[in-house]
Every structure is written in structure tokens, then in C-alpha cells.
Design brief:
By secondary structure, the protein is mainly β. The protein is 12% helix and 48% strand. The chain is built from 3 helices and 9 strands; from the N terminus they run βββββαββββαα. The protein has helices at 71-79, 144-149, 154-157, and strands at residues 2-11, 24-33, 37-44, 48-56, 61-68, 82-95, 98-105, 113-118, 132-135. The chain has an 8-stranded antiparallel barrel with strand order 1-5-4-3-2-6-7-8. A hairpin with a 7-residue loop joins strand 7 (98-105) and strand 8 (113-118). The longest helix is centred in the middle third of the chain and has 9 residues, at 71-79. The model has no long low-confidence stretch (mean pLDDT 93).
């Protein structure tokens, strides 16, 4: 089990790209979902797959359990998942001693770019890069679970990314 403590932001411009890692292609869907816990299946670069359980503990913190599974099992689970498959490319950017994960969404959510930063504890306040926009931590409009369950809107995906 890993304790996941993170904050999430919209990305306001492309300046992050000059410092980014090579992207990782992610596809994910939800097998089970409720307000405070999820069971997610994810494929990584079309050859690896993981099954993840997340249980919300507080506004910023979740307990996370992740298990590698056979890739073909994940593909079968996609067919039985709730809602839509979320597609995105994840990039890593080091800034101010913290690792930022920048997600560039494709498919129905094309145009949306978000960034998450892992925190050492709930009081950790990382320095924010100039490309960070408004904070969306806890905003259910931007949770991947919620996005999988409803149709994308222009306002959700809008922004200078």
C-alpha cells in the first residue's frame, strides 16, 4: 500500500514541454467506482497493464494499491468497464525539488491538460512553475473517474495548454 498525497492543477501554457520527459501513453477505465473508492484498470504504452484500488482518506490523501496484470486481461476489462476509456499522454517534469506529472488528454477530452504533484505530507507546499494554472484538487469535474462517466464539455477542455 502506498499513501498518495497530491494536488492537481490545470496547465495554462506549453512552457512545461521544454523540460518534459518522453511521454507515456495511458488508457484507463473504471471497473467499480463510488465517491470515495475506485477500482481502475490501466494500460501503459500498449504493452503493460495495472489494476489499481484507491480509497480516499482526506481531501488530498488516498491509499493506493497497485498490481501488475496481464495486458490481455486489461483489454477484456475495458470492454466491461463503466463509462468511457480515458486516453492521455503523461509527461514528467522536475521543478523545485518536486516531480510534476503533466497529463495531455486525447480522444473526447482533447484540449485538456492537467498537472499533478506528489506531496511529502498534507502540509507540503511545492513551488509552482509558471505554466501552472488554477488548482482543481478535489474538483469532481476534473477527476478521471467523473470524466469517464460523463460526456466532455468545451469548457472542461478549454484553456491555453
Amino acid at each position: 500500500m502506498t499513501a498518495e498525497i497530491e494536488r492537481k492543477f490545470k496547465v495554462s501554457n506549453d512552457r512545461w514541454r521544454q523540460h518534459a520527459s518522453v511521454g507515456t501513453e495511458l488508457r484507463q477505465a473504471y471497473i467499480m467506482a463510488s465517491k470515495d473508492r475506485i477500482l481502475r484498470v490501466r494500460t501503459i504504452d500498449a504493452h503493460r497493464a495495472v489494476l489499481t484500488v484507491k480509497i480516499r482518506i482526506g481531501r488530498l490523501q488516498r491509499d493506493e494499491y497497485e498490481y501488475e496484470i496481464p495486458y490481455l486481461d486489461a483489454i477484456e476489462m475495458f470492454a466491461r468497464a463503466l463509462g468511457k476509456i480515458i486516453e492521455k499522454t503523461r509527461y514528467e517534469v522536475e521543478f523545485g525539488g518536486h516531480l510534476w506529472e503533466v497529463d495531455v488528454y486525447s480522444g473526447e477530452h482533447r484540449g485538456l491538460v492537467t498537472a499533478e504533484v506528489e506531496l511529502a505530507n498534507c502540509d507540503d507546499v511545492p513551488p509552482q512553475p509558471t505554466w501552472i494554472g488554477p488548482e482543481i484538487t478535489g474538483n469532481q469535474l476534473y477527476s478521471n473517474r467523473a470524466m469517464a462517466m460523463r460526456r466532455a464539455t468545451a469548457s472542461l477542455c478549454a484553456g491555453v495548454n
